[in-house]
């Protein structure tokens, strides 16, 4: 990723299938997201939510709001889909909804900054005559 194009956003179910929304509606993809940034939304101790996650996501994805003709590139897009699902889950747990700015600041920016630093380092190392050797077990 070079930082010069929009990112596409999706939500995974427990099997790793990515639900994402675009001008053709909701898609379910089992592959094609291998070079993504994965952002955990649920804490491991929230087992009761994890039990219902797949059903919540499937039901949410079938709502009329996510029909293809409702897609609008700037205001009703993949980001809207992901944020609306997160807020639906938050609402079910008695929590306040997040604004786009809050969601971006709390969930996305920390992970994208980290990925950006990694990619920058990787590009620098790849364009110079460096290589990385794993440390021997006892040296770690």
Automatic annotation (TrEMBL):
Give start-end of the signal peptide. none
Q: Which domain of life is it from?
A: Eukaryota
Q: Which Pfam families match?
A: DUF4796_C (PF16044)
Q: Which InterPro entries match?
A: MKRN2OS-like, MKRN2OS-like_C
Question: Where in this chain does the record put each MKRN2 opposite strand protein-like C-terminal domain?
Answer: 1-125
Entry-linked PANTHER family? MKRN2 OPPOSITE STRAND PROTEIN
- This chain's protein is named MKROS protein
